[in-house]
Design goal:
With 251 residues, the chain is α/β, with parallel strands linked by helices. It has one domain: NAD(P)-binding Rossmann-like Domain (Rossmann fold, 3-Layer(aba) Sandwich), CATH 3.40.50. 41% of the residues lie in helices and 13% in strands. It is built from 7 helices and 7 strands. Strand 1, helix 1 and strand 2 form a beta-alpha-beta unit. The radius of gyration is 17 Å and the shape is globular. The two termini are 19 Å apart. It binds NADP nicotinamide-adenine-dinucleotide phosphate.
Length: 251
């Protein structure tokens, strides 16, 4: 199974049965689709995001589809301090006791502009949301992931994470950093733990971020978030046991 291409994975019913999976960026785009898919395959999902109304709408859609009751964990990465992270950890521990999956989908595009014109405050915000918050959240949740028999952390990377391009600024730099975080943590957890750590490049996906990055593009020609699901479901479920430290293209 370890040689399977994640993008070709077909999850069987119940593939994530009883797993507890926290999804960041669950309020919209790829994260909302992933949250709904995790629940459809049996997971109890912790919906994390900053917009409670949008999280409630995802919550309702999961219940309407007959999925296990999810949990909502509002957190704005730009405003969160240590007390917010420890309250989150206490909440997950109190409700579920442990965590089997952590899928990082939250992210910001920042400005598509030359380095010379990148706004410094925006740059720092992108680096904070895309990199620092992913690190802080992962660190805070590691004790709960260690309590799982089979835990999976999935970071979300991008097409500009290994070979950057002009004007992708803080976004590209943040995705290089996410690859580094994934590799460091995968190496640290490699043999001693039941935690695996990987990254997924979703490819071009029809979301509000994509529309901001390519305002002139015909949105109808861009694949829907469902196209990225097989890779994430593969990495979050038992089929990927033993796979760690790798970067996958979802398309
Ligand atoms: N779409 C693509 O073509 C594409 C391609 C490659 C990689 N990606 C990556 O895929 C991931 C998901 O992107 P997407 O296309 O689904 O984008 P999206 O629709 O803009 O969703 C981004 C998510 O991140 C959340 N978020 C942003 N700032 C936050 C903050 N300060 N605190 C907490 N949550 C915050 C958003 O919450 P709100 O709903 O409150 O805004 C939203 O849920 C990102 O990491 C992106 O870099 C996307």
């Amino acid at each position: 199974m370890a040689d399977q291409e994640p993008r070709d994975y077909v999850a069987v019913p119940g593939a994530l049965q009883d797993r507890v999976i926290l999804v960041t960026g669950a309020s919209g785009g790829i994260g909302a689709e992933l949250a709904r898919n995790c629940a459809a395959f049996g997971a109890r999902v912790v919906l994390m995001g900053r917009n409670v109304k949008k999280l409630e709408s995802v919550y309702d859609s999961i219940l309407a589809a007959g999925g296990p009751r999810p949990s909502i964990a509002p957190l704005d990465f730009e405003k969160a301090d240590a007390s917010h992270y420890s309250a989150l950890v206490d909440g997950v521990r109190g409700e579920f006791g442990h965590l089997d999956g952590l899928a990082h989908l939250a992210g910001q595009l920042g400005e598509v502009a030359p380095i010379e014109h990148q706004d410094v405050v925006t740059w720092m915000r992108v680096m904070h949301v895309n990199v620092n918050a992913a690190f802080i959240l992962t660190q805070a949740l590691l004790p709960l992931l260690r309590l799982s028999q089979d835990a999976s952390i999935v970071f979300t990377t991008s097409g500009v994470s290994q070979r950057a391009r002009a004007y992708w600024g803080a976004y590209a730099v943040s995705k290089f950093a996410i690859e580094g975080l994934m590799q460091v943590l995968a190496d640290e957890t490699d043999t001693l733990t039941s935690i695996r750590v990987n990254s997924v490049n979703p490819g071009r996906i029809r979301t509000s971020m994509r529309a901001r990055a390519y305002p002139g593009e015909d949105a109808g020609s861009v694949p829907l978030p469902s196209e990225a699901m097989p890779a994430y479901l593969y990495l979050l479920g038992p089929a990927s046991r033993g796979v760690t430290g790798r970067r996958f293209d979802a398309q």
